[in-house]
Known about the structure:
Layout: H1 24-55, E1 57-58, E2 63-64, E3 69-71, E4 79-81, E5 86-87, E6 90-93, E7 100-103, E8 108-109, E9 114-117, E10 120-123, E11 128-129, E12 134-136, H2 145-155, E13 171-173, E14 178-179, E15 184-185, E16 190-191, E17 196-197, E18 202-203, E19 211-214, E20 219-223, H3 234-239
Parallel strand pairs: 1-4, 2-5, 3-6, 4-7, 5-8, 6-9, 7-10, 8-11, 9-12, 10-13, 11-14, 12-15, 13-16, 14-17, 15-18, 17-19
Antiparallel strand pairs: 19-20
Amino acid sequence: MPADHFHSFGNAVNKLVVTPGPHRVRRWLALAGRRIREYWEHLAALDAVERFHEQAILGANCRIGSRAWCVNRGARDNIQLGNYVVCRGLLRCENFSPGKIVIGDYVYIGDDCLLSCAERIEIGTLTLLAHGVQIFDNDSHPIDPYLRGQDFLTILGQHKGPRNKIASKPVKIGERAWIGLYAIITKGVQIGDGSIVAAGSVVTADVPPLTLVAGNPARVVKELTDFSLPITDKLLEKSK
């Protein structure tokens, strides 16, 4: 996971005190190298922000990571980010059937996350996607082996005509859910409010609210009975 060193968008630059001694030149070189890396990281972040403004609709106070990106050949509102979203991953509306990605307020999308959308992917307020999470509302390629080969040749430009039909079904993740490291969410899945998907899980069926699931395929581990829904919104009221 190539997580960048500005994680959580804290203070990126720490002061380096150079003291007299035999390692003074080495410390100055280290400082110069660090500043150069920070400069290129800053340029990458500006490029990512510009890309999102061109191909998506952003709410207030969104934070776009330097390795974030979006791909949208359709209308800008095919990708919508709510207020205070932190996005460090890739949001992609597929060209074979461009769908709509709708991200609620205060959502976190970690490093190396991938959202592949051919119909609709919706994520609710205060939901957290850990690093490496992948969400697909589509099969990416046809199931039929002949058509799959033909589809790949079409992508490579070696077969004329449109791409073959690829199955898709909307994905919806509720509010305050937590999707763990490297979890995979497949097409047609709905995850209820407040639920947790354990790291590395492959979710192929709906998850009820306030439920912990784990495994491949993901199974219910336990109900989160110590909590209740709806959860108070006083925290959100204070943050506005």
